[in-house]
Structure formats: structure tokens, C-alpha cells
């Protein structure tokens, strides 16, 4: 199985790979020279002109990128103002006759954070084919990270506790359960965990954690990357048991996790249990939304006539026997069929 | 009736949204065109399941000889279809001031249907390097630059333009300059020929905001450059066209609001049929979560939706899984309150003048389990001051009809007649007044009914009087204690006709905006009272008070 991952290149990036090139997660795909803070360069004074006159001598327009040593301004007597380092010209101040430039840093790497083969190369993106499976989530947070998968809960509905995070989790992507508190996330980050895969999390706890991290970043107290992905929903939502079993079979595999875009690549993995809208009787299903969010079961039958739920909403309904033994009527719109793993 | 005739006399109206697909079958019944079946389902279920739903409904009512042909008849029927845009159009806003030029530009862009993926302002507290890096990484279809008051030469506005020039690839999307007019020529030189459009400054000075020209240009750009598909079939275009045609046909001033899963559309149409519309890219239910403090606001306004943390999870669920349904009363309450919040956001600038008819569309409003809930969303979200009829587009017919050629929309609306909209009744919304004091005294006269004593409505109260669909009552409204119905009037007594509907006559003296007690227990009590006053079933002619 393979999937394609697209790496967007920022403006001005120079690709360092070619089509057919095989890359590792930490490999440099391209380099870029990122702008640094703006500085002022005197223009009018070296040209011995008034600010207004000196403005007419500028050879570059705002927004232009200049190489080191390029002429920024020149007058008819041969006087020149050059930039000492590569920069972006951002403006010219008519009051004091200076130019605002943003010097460009030394070469910075653009990483793909995935292992794969380059299949296309464009000015704004590189596409990589990954031998493995893609699991997409409904939300997430954090940067791109990679590491080995490690399952840290026993059951798909278990909450990931802070006590489950130990030194063995360092550098790994932890597969948790139905929820992780802000305290657990904070401990995971402190222990050097690369990322966490959860069925659900309380939105408030994720936001609280993000706010804490932001404050710590501002004061320079956070190093390294960390990402979280939610696969099922917000709130205390367990994994689909089939998907949890799939993670168990892939424990120890390398994976790349993109928190912001809620994508998880698991290398050399077979396809995860597929999801299908509009389940049929006999299908194994996963329920979304309360009161059954994250619960798996079997769709026993679809009710013939429109059904009025406790909310008063009328819709197509199905009788579902959940894996904890209870049965309930659930809107079909809130169910997805999950394909069983081969061998189930 | 032969099969051929039936085939000729059936049409399928489809509204395919990003989350839900709605279909209505219209057919000729005893010489009249009627809506004979209607179904709605998650779009992901596909066309076959939708057709199956329609067939199941029709099986019970059609000529038995046609039962086995229904699937083919529907598949072959004329299709009148509208749909939401395939993907949102993305825009980066670069401006001088977060509070002035930046917010004006952002609002105009969102009201024109653009999704603003990046906003950078010179005063946003970021470093210059961060700003440039963010913009260089942005993947957008167009760039909007704003800043500097007209007549001034703001170096910071030029800096904003330079940021875009540095971050944008050549031919990397249209650039719009909506800043100081005197800088337009300088800004134009920063981009390749033809890349820049110069539009009137939405903040020409510190006191005025004039976003109309920018909004119109952005709406045109959205249609021409980003969604070149046949625009009349876009729901955001078709719905306003139908509202315009409806206004022209009825001579009413109509506001239509279509609250979708991702975006929302509002259309204001004048009695002559002219209309203006706005598409709010993040105005749909999924956009609620993006507003700062939305969960707290929804929890506060709902009263019975649970704690803020639970509401926050629900709002995220609406974003992540927009085609799911609220199964519990708490989830429904939070969803409907989110709808009220989004409607209020759409109408931030208000509607000038009173309305004759307010039409709600979109699943959350038009398919609310109880008509009173739909009425509450419209009343609380829009606050239509004055005397206004309320209705919902329950079968989602307006969008498909609005996608017809200009000369056929009116005909389509007329053919469907009373099947087109579900009337909720008439709302009398006043503003002003002192809490607890008498705000309105309303006398309802109905021919054939005994005279009743006037209904007294106090400031802060919401009352509903049963007035069934199809009935008209003459009402006399006496305004008291400094309250008004919007427009200045010579007489404190106003006589108008009120048409009935599923809710009836709604007398709303809760003010604009609706005032709520600060103490949570008091607030919950008041909210429950309003809910009950609208929802209680009551004998005809009686009023429900809260």
C-alpha cells in the first residue's frame, strides 16, 4: 500500500532532491533563506542627497530580493549604496532617507518529515510516495514529528494516564485511548514523547495545553517538537476497536505524525480498517456524537420508518448492539461502517 | 394516466450541500404542481440512497401501476440543481492596523465568501521575520492589502504591500489594493502588470467604514477566478436569486438567511425584486468554533446545553462531522444556539429598515424538530424589529429554483405556491423600554372569533398567540413606555394584519440585543420561560407567556 504526501515549499525555497530520490523523515528536501528581523540601511546620507532625491536613486522596488553586495541605490555621479548581505527590501522612509531591509538567514532546511520516494517536483511543492498507510483524524495540534508507535493503553476506551508515560515512551508516538488530560500531555512532552494518538480529547484540555506550550515557547522553555492527533472526536471518545487492534498489530512501526493537519503515516503498514458512510445491517459500526460517541458495535437493523430521537430530531435510525452489550437506536447519519481487518 | 404523462409531469429539485443533500420531487396532482416527496441525507450517502428515499415515500401515494417504475421516473425526471462551491476560496489579508484596516478588510472578505487563511497586520505583535515567513508559507488564491487613510501617504501601508510583494510568487494569485488611494500607483509597481486591482478604501478615514465596493469586487473575483463553474448553480448565488424573485412577485421586503454546514448566505430583497447578498465563508455551523469565546457564549445563551467544556466539544464536532445529527436534547439546544450566534454574526451591521418576511433556510433552521425552535433561531439571531412574517424553506426548494434562468424563477415559485415555504407566523419585535414595565398592548381581531381583551407584553417578555396557518388577524399594537418598532411613527397605536403559521403570533419585547440576567440561575429560568412560551401547545386563541 502507498499514499502520496505533499510538502509545500515556501517562496524562495531551493529543492535539494530530484524525482525518484528516496528520502528519510529527517532528510532535507529543500533549503530556504528565511527572513530575519528588519534593519535600516542609510541611503540618502551616502548619496549626499535629500531623502526625497535619494528615493529616485533606488534601483530596487519594495518586495525585491537582493543578493549580498547588490546595489540598492546609485546616483548619476557613481555613488552607490550596496547591501552587505542577501535581503528583502521592504520599504524606504522618506523622512530619514533610509531603506528597511529584512536580511535573509543562512540556508535553512525544509524537511519532509516522512520516508518515501519523490514523485513530483514543482516550484511550490514536492510530492512523496510513502510505502505505508495514512490515518486521518478529526483534529490535532502541533508540528510534524516521527517515531515508533507504542500502544500505551489496554482497551480502546481507556483513558491515557500520566502514569503510563515513562522513559520508554521517549521519542515515540504513543497510542492512547479515549482521552488524555492536559497534565498527561504536559508530562508526555516533558518526557520527550514525540506525539500522541488519541480517540478523543476534551477540546478545553487541548486548548489549555496549547496555551501552556505557547507561553513556555515565548519564554524559551520548550524544546523539541510534539504533536497530538484525534481520530474519532472531541470529548471522551474511545477508539474504534478495529482501528485499535490495527494499531496493536503495528506497534513498533515507524510513523510520521502531522498534528495541525491531523494526518498520521504508518510505514510498511497494511491499510487501516476502512470507513464507509451509510452502513447496512450486519456491518460493524462506530458511532459519532453523544451519547454513543466512539462506541463500536454491530448494526442489527435499520428502522423502516423515520424515527424521532430524544432531541426531537427525526431521521433514519438503526438499532445497534454495542460491544459493551447494550443496544440503542442511533441516527444512521451518526454511524460509519468499519471494515474488519483481514483475519478477523 | 399513462406513464408518459407522469414522466413529463415530474421534476427533481436538488440542493447538494457540503454536508447534506436535499431533494424534492414535484409532480402534477389533480392539475396542480405539488411537492410530492422530500428527502434529506448526508451528501456522502450518494445519489442512489437519496433516490431510494424518495421512492419509498412515493410508493405509498402514487398510482400502484407506477410503483415499479418510480426509480426510473425519478432518475429520468428533469433535474433542477444547485450545490455549494467545490472548495473554499482562500485569501491572505495584509493590513496596517488590526483594529481598523485589518478588521474591515477581513470582514469584507468573509462577507464576500472568501476564507481568510492568514491575516497579518503591521501592529500584530509578531516580528517582521515571522510575518514574512507566515506569508511565504501561505497557500492562497488571492491577496488583499489594506491600510492608510485616503489622502495620506502611510509608509506602513507601503510596508504591508512590500510584504505581499516579497511573499507572493509571480502570477501567484490576484492582488487587491484596498488602501490609501494616493499610494495605488506606487503599490502597482511592486507587482507584474495586470496583477493588481485597485479598489475603494474600506477605511477612508478613522471614523468611516465603506466596505461595499471591496465586498462587491471580492465577490466578483470569487465568481470569475476561483469558481468558474456555472455560477447560477452555486447555492450562494441561486438562493439570493430566488429570494429576489420572491420579493418581486409578492411585493414584500424579504431577508433570506441560509445557514449551511460551512458557510452562510444572506440575501436582502426589495419589493421591486432587486437584491443584495453576502456569503459568509465561516458563517456556517462549523464556523462557530472559530469565534473566540464561542463555547462560553453558546453555553450562556442556551441555558440547557450543559457546561462550557461540553459545548466546546460539541462545536468541534459540528466542525469535524457536520453531517451528523444531535441525538440528545442538550446537543440540539447547543446546535440551535450556535445557529443563533452565527445568524447574529451575519447581521452584525444590521438590516436597515423593517422587513416584511424573514425566510430561514439550511437544515438546522428549516428542519428544526419544532417550528417554535426555528422561530426562536430567527428571532434571536436576526432580531427583526417591527412586524415581520417568518417562514422556513423546509424542503430546500429556494436554492434549486434560484438556479433556473431569470425568466423561469418566478414561474417556478408561483407553480409551487403554498408548498414553497412553511409559514411560522408573524413576529412583533420591539426595542427599548424598561425591564418589567409594560411594553406593548396588543389586541387581536379575527373575523368569526369573539373579541378578547388586549394582551399585555412587558419588556423582557416573549409571548406566543396561536394563529393557525392560513388565518389572518387584524392586530392593534399600542406601544408603551418608550418602546418602538423601529421606524418612527406619529401614533402610538399601530394596526396591521398578521398572518398565521405553525407558531402563530409572536410578541417579542425582549429588546435588541436580547438582555439576559447575569446570575446563571436567573438566566436559566428566563431562557426556559422563553423556550416554553414558544413551545407549549395551547388551545387556539390563547397566549403563552414568559
Architecture overview:
The complex is a heterodimer of chains A (344) and B (546). Chain A has helices at residues 44-47, 51-55, 182-190, 203-218, 241-249; strands at residues 2-8, 14-15, 22-23, 28-35, 39-42, 65-66, 71-74, 80-82, 87-93, 98-111, 116-121, 125-136, 139-142, 144-151, 159-160, 173-175, 179-180, 195-201, 227-234, 254-258, 263-267, 275-276, 284-287, 296-302, 307-308, 314-315, 317-322, 327-331, 335-338. The radius of gyration of chain A is 27 Å and the shape is elongated. Chain A folds into 3 domains: 34-106, no CATH class; 132-267, Phosphohistidine domain (Glucose Oxidase, domain 1); 275-338, SH3 type barrels. With 344 residues, chain A is mostly beta strands. Chain B has 546 residues and is of the alpha/beta class. In chain B, the strands form 4 sheets. Chain B has a 9-stranded mixed β-sheet with strand order 12-11-10-13-14-15-21-18-22, with helices on both faces. A 5-stranded parallel β-sheet of chain B has the order 6-5-7-8-9, with helices on both faces. Chain B has a 4-stranded mixed β-sheet with strand order 3-2-1-4. In chain B, a hairpin with a 5-residue loop joins strand 11 and strand 12. In chain B, helix 5 crosses helix 6 (155-167), helix 10 (294-302) packs across helix 11 (308-320) and helix 10 (294-302) crosses helix 12 (329-346). The longest helix of chain B is centred in the middle third of the chain and has 18 residues, at 329-346. Chains A and B meet through strand 9, helix 4 and strand 26 of A and helix 5, helix 6, helix 11 and helix 12 of B.
Count, helices of chain A: 5
Tell me the number of structural domains of chain B. Answer: 3
- Give the domain tally of chain A: 3
What do the pLDDT scores of chain B average to? 88
- Please tell me the overall pLDDT of chain A: 91
Q: CATH topology of the largest domain in chain A, what is it called?
A: Glucose Oxidase, domain 1
CATH superfamily heading of the largest domain in chain A: Phosphohistidine domain
The chain pair forming the largest interface, with residue counts per chain, is: A-B, 54 and 56 residues
Proportion in β-strands of chain B: 25-35%
- How many strand segments of chain A? 29
Radius of gyration of chain A: 27 Å
